[in-house]
UniProtKB/TrEMBL annotation, chains A, B:
InterPro entries: Cat_transpt (IPR003445). GO terms for biological process: metal ion transport. This is Cation transporter. It comes from the Archaea. It is a multi-pass membrane protein. One of its GO terms (molecular function) is monoatomic cation transmembrane transporter activity.
Amino acid sequence: MGRLEYFSIIAPDMGRIFRFMGFVTLLPLGVAAYFEEWDMLVPMGLVPLIFVLLGSALLTIPRPPREARLSVAFTAVALIWFTAAVIGSVPFIVGLHMPVTDSIFEAMSGWTDTGLTLLPDVDATPKTLLFWRSFMQWLGGLGIVAFTVALVSRSGLTQRGLYRSEGRSEAFMPSVVGTGIAMWRIYGIITLLSIGLILLSGVPVWDAVNLALTAIATGGFTVHSEGIPYYDSALLEFLLVPVMLAGAMPFKLYYLMYYKRKASFFGDRQAVALLSLALIGIFVLFGDLIFLSGIDAFSAFRQSVFMATAAITSTGFQNTSPFTWPTVTTLYLIMFMLIGGSSGSTAGGMKISRVLLGLEGLVWWFKRIFVSGKAIVPFRHEGRTVQRNIAEVEVSKNMLIIILYFLTVFVGTIAVLHFETPTMFESSNVIFEVVSAFCNNGISTGFVNPEMSIGAKWVFIFVMWFGRLEIMPVLVLFVGLIKGFD
Amino acid sequence: MGRLEYFSIIAPDMGRIFRFMGFVTLLPLGVAAYFEEWDMLVPMGLVPLIFVLLGSALLTIPRPPREARLSVAFTAVALIWFTAAVIGSVPFIVGLHMPVTDSIFEAMSGWTDTGLTLLPDVDATPKTLLFWRSFMQWLGGLGIVAFTVALVSRSGLTQRGLYRSEGRSEAFMPSVVGTGIAMWRIYGIITLLSIGLILLSGVPVWDAVNLALTAIATGGFTVHSEGIPYYDSALLEFLLVPVMLAGAMPFKLYYLMYYKRKASFFGDRQAVALLSLALIGIFVLFGDLIFLSGIDAFSAFRQSVFMATAAITSTGFQNTSPFTWPTVTTLYLIMFMLIGGSSGSTAGGMKISRVLLGLEGLVWWFKRIFVSGKAIVPFRHEGRTVQRNIAEVEVSKNMLIIILYFLTVFVGTIAVLHFETPTMFESSNVIFEVVSAFCNNGISTGFVNPEMSIGAKWVFIFVMWFGRLEIMPVLVLFVGLIKGFD
Ligand SMILES: [K+]
Ligand SMILES: [K+]
């Protein structure tokens, strides 16, 4: 099949989504009007305009009748995220006269919920554009949940086999449209609750709204150059902890809670693992800070609770610079960034489910080594026995993805170093920054800054995109572009 | 089965091997006599004595009749290597009054062909002990080849399934005894040829013998504190290149060449990949050195040819310190160290076969994503189609091992950093050194030195042991010790 014919399969789906985005992205215009930033109306208004025009154009393309393939969904989602970043960059280019690369970086960091920024001065940026950053993160967060859920319930990459083998229907929502509406409602409710919670700390409404949007999306943009330390409020930091955790929980739980009225947080292994990891992270960071840094106990507690949660949920808020920390503590931070939150949440990283499945595969293999001869060792997943051949496929796919994560960090770091010669920043800072971008985390050493070379900026843009979609969609797009889609 | 009963299965096999080692390790006594280092006779004589006594003691243990299991072979080989390191440390403790930890480190670095050293002054060390270091590397090199071959042809972990599925018998040698004799003969011939080759450079016979022993074993010990730069001979460096490559080739090829009179280097994919990787490495390092370091073309050529070969073959000789190099070049070096040489050779690292199988798995999965519905995509390995369920198992095991490699580097680095607070050495140097020890490579930043804390030294001892046996044997030993062998 030719590349053009292939894209014509995707076009109508993309068109519908873009036209929908055209309507949703009208909201920042309200912010411009409220704050009377009239000069922002045109830059901001271009976004819905382009989305609607592009969407309508794509909808005119006739869709050839062909069966759906996994590669089609992958290619479509990869293209949607990239196009959204390009369109999302327009307000920064037109309204702030930022360079094109920096603007695309900013929008990609927004849609992918990464939170790294190239804004020259956050405090001096018009409120409309600050809201646009927060809003992109909020939309991107729900977008990735919807994509993951659709993938699990429809085309079935991630671990579908594990469920199907038990004859259990994983379709926790009847259709994508139904999913969409239920999702929006739940997401909206959680966001409103978060705004209320954050207001308890006494920050202004404007700050509370933006912080809630970016915390629940585990995005991490703030509306001040200083970030979270601007508020200098331990209360705010502790109030943000549950919001970040809520963003990194599997959203399926909220659905079950809201529609089926059953709360089963402790029955979900990802939720349990997330909370355990956060506790372990707090414990380790606290110990390291007390024994290795020698700061006072309350500061150590405040830093460890906030930073461990921000790292493991991939939100990337910071109430301190981890580069005043001992090296070994920073390495723990990297590990938490790599693991990331739950799959089916707004969080980034490899995902807890993937790490758990990897561990199960390891245990399984160990048992098989110890057992003599041809005795059969069953594979157990979530308390059930899985058919052997299905287990092999799922374990193996999972391992591949994990290896691709490590490889990407490696290749990304080498690529950045080919563009930048680190004099001030040692190489381990570059690795840290690549992991942070790739896992859509956003904790930064300061290496990512507007002075960086254009090449390095594009590596980071690519790495954020690659990581948000968990590698395969972008890889499939590139392989398809190069080798054709057959 | 109880732990003691379990060890009684292994004891006779270990006893035979230790008694054999007792006879072989008489050779360094000849060196002591030749150089009239009479005070070294006792320290060196303790090694064969202990080996023979321990071996005989183990042989008296009655072996319970039980079927052989993979875990038995794994546990035995892990214990053999560790015991050999403890016994091998005696001459350094008794003859040189080195601390026990440093001596075990030195012997482990010898038997595992790593080449990192804690000797306080190589030039001032008695020749008997220098020969003992080289000889441990030489024996350890053949030992690991024999272990890998035995594993493939008997119990069959590594990729046996891939061969068996084609009904092809992989037993390239009829029995372990036969293997042993054929191996010793071939290894001896190659070593003699290497000595002759190295003598062409004009170095003394003493140096040529030691360099040949450690080069063919891809071990990397030298007899001068300065290492290879001591000789300041470009000719020697170029002559060592083919010897190192010979050590990292699959030894199966030599067997086929010697006994079947057919040379099939270019028919073996590991051999082809090894040479290609060396060429790529030379090319990349040369380019980086010319464009980023700005040294003259001949020096760049000399450094890139020697360092790339030393890195990819895991020999670890150095004709320059890579820490005068740009960071990005060092990262390439880490990548080459991680890949390592061929499996079934004396080289360390993940092994080329494992990397190739990983890539095949990736390609296979890609094809399956692009193909619609239930169409079957065959798995191709070495030009043949492999049964699907076998392919799944092998691909999945392979991925697990690769992930364990990355994990070990991570955990090892964190462990070292808990014992050492790097002030002079930045954290990326620690990662480099852990990779170098783990992949039995031995290229060093200078971080490993006698001043290091005892804890860090033990982490390195463990990591060398873990890496040489390719993870599983040591892991099985520990899991068995903790959870029992059932
Ligand atoms: K983030
Ligand atoms: K070595």
